[in-house]
Amino acid sequence: MSDHESPISIQGGGTLAKAIVSQGEHWSVPDGAILASWMLRVAAFLVDVVIVNSVLMLISRKEIVNAWNLSLWNSADFHYALAFSVTILASHWLYWRLTGLAYSRSLGQKMFGIAVVCDDGSAVTSKMWDRRAAGKLLYLLPLVNLYFAVYEIARISQRHTHQSNLDLKVGTIVAQAESLPPASRRHIR
Q: What is the pTM of this model?
């Protein structure tokens, strides 16, 4: 066999696996990064929602639950329910933006050891955190959230980069923090 050429030739060098992964429309992944599964991402999201809603419950003395009060929505005082809903959405957006800027991940993601970085491993910018936080608000809207959750879980499961559509739009990946190369980890707290 030593006198035969290999039937597989890779242009540009590297391994066959890297050549296969680099083809197509998907983003590249930093070397050695272990991508977060959809289960870890959902668990971290739920922890984040519990944290924000618990703080809102304490601050509002449980009045924030009126955002889900259907009889209040159908009354002449619906503007109270609307104000509570806007408060919930604004609080979550602010939470995801500020924790993203401070830690490169939310507290729920930190609890599960995952971090958000650009597809090339660099730090996520402020503008990217704004877009990412705004996109996550869809998961808080009743009924709409069920459709988007199932759709995004399917996308995460199907892509080799485990990216949701939001990740693709923003240009981020969610990976286990310890698996990222040291240069990609330095901004993660």
A: 0.78
